[in-house]
Write a structure and sequence with these properties.
mainly alpha, 2 strands
Length: 399
């Protein structure tokens, strides 16, 4: 496949067949185009809207007004836009701030750390199935890829803490390493639960299996898209418990309250972020909100049916939607209807999980470090292993 790609790239830019190096560079640059489109079309709006939503939710919970004034004012066009302009104003402010590197710090690692954190978040979008035919790639090891790429962030955080030449930053980074490495264990075990039931690591195969009802081997004839096919019901209640464990581990891996010990302001000033300012500081938070959205989408895919659900079922059975190419000689509207139904189904599930993270942050108090470790090793790991055992049994009964 790689050889065919290089041959195609060489012919496209007029190189002889031996010009493999130039073709490889061209193919690499060509591959950056979809990554940039994802960055501009998905990740940036997710970050801006995520900050706005978090402020609104925090204001509602704390009985105060969130951002609701900053909008647009161009000549006769004046509207508050419900405060959406506040996130844009914050971005402009961060772009204008000084790019500071602390004296005595490691400049290369200090500057590279936010890029590595952001790259780890961006990599999750490569396998995110937004609809039946709307994804970049669906590898055979999709679940393993998600767990692996999601762990890249901890490397960037450790680099940031070490390179800052600051005790608070180093302590925050070490907390992050201890927390993330610990919670990856129950998170990986919980992720295996739907995999054992279906028998595949492909995210597409997990969604396809959830379109059919299979509850402990019971396989009726009606569609599983009407809730009962979702993984949380397949090995009930063990897959449901695995979903809760997976979600808790997501909060810990994302450093979201009550697991925000790596950057808690009451003890460590700002943790590993203490010495960062400007857009490099902003990249950490943009990467955090991007990872929140991506992992919410992964959780929805693995446990809640992904793009398969009531809205997709209505698009196919009630509106004539059919999976297929969107364009042949003209626009294929049945394929468009099916795609829109699947994307809408995936979106509402992902957004709900995304907003619950914010609700949890402003509801629960911060845990102590010993409580965080006890929750992981004394409770989540044993429960996750029990769930994995029974989900494997459900997989045997369903075959």
């Amino acid at each position: 496949m790689i050889a065919d790609l290089l041959h195609w790239a060489a012919n496209l830019i007029g190189l002889p067949d031996g010009g493999q190096a130039g073709a490889a560079v061209f193919a690499l640059l060509l591959g950056l185009v979809p990554a940039l489109l994802i960055l501009l079309a998905v990740v940036t709006p997710v970050g801006l809207l995520g900050v706005w939503a978090e402020r609104r939710i925090a204001g509602r919970i704390q009985a105060r007004i969130g951002p609701n004034r900053v909008g647009i004012s161009i000549g006769p066009i004046k509207h508050h836009l419900f405060g959406l302009g506040q996130s844009v104003a914050d971005g402009v402010k961060l772009l204008g701030k000084e790019d500071f590197v602390p004296p005595g710090g490691d400049k290369f690692l200090f500057l590279a750390a936010p890029l590595i954190v952001f790259a780890g978040s961006l990599g999750l979008f490569a396998v995110l199935p937004l609809a039946s035919s709307l994804y970049a790639v669906d590898p055979n090891v999709g679940v393993f890829y998600v767990l692996s790429v999601g762990a890249i962030e901890v490397i960037g955080v450790l680099m940031a803490g070490w390179a800052s030449n600051n005790k608070w930053s180093l302590l925050g980074a070490m907390r992050e390493v201890a927390q993330v490495v610990s919670y990856e264990i129950p998170m990986g075990i919980a992720a295996l639960c739907p995999v054992l039931v279906v028998g595949s690591l492909k995210l597409g195969a997990l969604i396809e299996a959830q379109r059919h009802v299979n509850i402990w081997g019971w396989q009726p004839g009606f569609s599983g898209e009407l809730f009962l096919g979702w993984s949380i019901f397949t090995a009930f209640p063990f897959n449901l418990i695995a979903f809760v464990i997976f979600y808790i581990c997501m909060l810990a891996n994302l450093k979201r309250a009550p697991f925000d010990l790596p950057e808690c302001e009451s003890e460590l000033v700002a943790g590993f972020l203490t010495e960062y300012s400007g857009m490099r500081w902003g990249l950490f938070f943009l990467g955090e909100y991007a990872a929140m959205f991506a992992l919410s989408g992964i959780a929805a895919t693995m446990f809640l049916g992904g793009w398969a659900g009531p809205l997709h079922w209505i698009a196919v059975n009630g509106c004539g939607g059919v999976a297929g190419p969107l364009w042949t000689d003209a626009v294929q509207w049945p394929a468009v209807i099916e795609l829109v139904g699947g994307a809408a189904e995936f979106s509402w599930k992902t957004v709900v999980l995304f907003l619950v993270m914010m609700q949890v942050r402003w509801t629960l108090p911060r845990l102590r470090l010993d409580q965080v470790m006890s929750l992981c090793y004394k409770y989540l790991v044993p429960f996750a292993m029990v769930c994995m055992l029974f989900c494997g049994l459900a997989g045997l009964m369903g075959t």
